[in-house]
Amino acid sequence: MENFYIASICLTENIGSIRGKYLLEHFGSGKAVWSAANEELEKTNLAPSIINELINFRQLHPDCPEQLKNYCEKKKIKLCSIKDPVYPEILKSMADAPLLLYYKGELIPNEARVSIVGTRTPTPYGLRVATNFAEKLAMNGITIVSGAAIGIDTAAHKGAMKYGRTIAILGEGLEAVSSNDKRQFLDRIIENGAVISEYSPNAHSNKKGMFPQRNRIIAGLSIGVVVVEGGKSSGAMNTAQHAGNYGRLLFAVPGNIFSEKSAGCHELIRDGAILVRSAEDVLEDCKFNIDYTVLPIDDKNKINNKSKINIKSPKAKVIDLPPLEGDDDLVFQMIPSDIGISADEIMMKLEEIESSKLSNILLNLEIKGYIEVDGIGNYIRI
User: What pLDDT is attached to residue 376?
Assistant: First the structure.
């Protein structure tokens, strides 16, 4: 229940992680802050206007902690604070570490993680790189972290899910995701990974700064950040800046010198980021002990190093899939196993299926593991 007192305090306007931590240190617990007399709150060093906001919020929502607890239990949302054992250790080194994390799935505090980020409008080359890096890192025991956005983020998550764990960090609340397609995608991530947000469950990303705040968690949660494609003013560059501030390894993938989508990567390389040509380069620089699924980390939060790097060859999971029926089977039969086919080509062959329905069928087939998307956006059987 303590975490829900803390969460209720942080629902107050202008009380975030830093001010929340101060109040916890001053009063000793979230429950003590929530039940403190107005006079005691006014004795703190916070501005009177902020204290008044907290006092007014408590008066308007006296049952907030209990209601929030009930809502999270109903929606199967877990909540951990920075003091909980399950809270990722590496995040604690950040001066602006999130006080709370709402999440679904499983958190592993000391697992080895690498973030892969990039543009929402990638080239086929960028998609291929993100997928390839994520696949090889994941099958060597590395959890892939990204932001669940379309483009490079999605390619990284999909590549990781083939062979291991992945974590999605949202710039909105876990229940604020409006797209049904994205909800299904996140549900698939939850099966062997986690979806995380520092925002309350129904917080929508309508405030300036929510996504840059999200980006700091993507950077801080990993020992290294790989930027695949991104413009000079992109969100990927913002994540790279956070990585530099937190002392994380920063990797950049080179691209076409005439492409604006690689301009950010080239600037990072020029300024000292590590140029990487493959997942092997990332593993070598991180010096991961890849003989273990979850890598050992010592009490100083440093990854134990071994000089020998042994890259494993991809080996897909063997999954028994149930037979398809109806339109699902009809669409599946149109998809070859040796070469990709576009959605438009499928539409031409199946004129009786509407475009919107076809999109849903293709997404469901991909999520269930029957098909995948190749580097240029075509569909192919797995």
Answer: 64
Instruction: Categorise residue 280: left if φ over 0, alpha if ψ from -120 to 50, beta otherwise.
Output: alpha
CATH of the structural domain 326-381, one choice from 2.60.120.580, 1.25.40.10, 1.10.1040.10, 1.10.10.10: 1.10.10.10
Long-range contact list for 52-61, CB < 8 A, 24+ apart? 53/12, 53/13, 53/14, 53/15, 54/9, 54/12, 54/15, 57/11, 57/12, 57/13, 58/34, 61/8, 61/11
Per-residue pLDDT, averaged over 270-286, amounts to: 93
Three-state secondary-structure class, residue 358: helix
Of 31-45, 176-190, 286-300, 323-337, which range is least confident? 286-300
Class of domain 90-96+101-286: alpha beta
- Count of positions (residues) in the chain: 382
Strand partners, 250: 225
Rounded Cα distance between 239 and 203, Å, is 21
What six digits make up the tokens of 321?
């899939």
Mean pLDDT across the stretch 221-248?
A: 93
**Residue among 37, 38, 11 nearest 99 (CA):** 11
Please report the sign of the dihedral spanned by the C-alpha atoms of residue 96, residue 101, residue 103, residue 108.
positive
Asked if 191 and 221 touch (Cβ cutoff 8 Å), the reply is no
pTM: 0.77
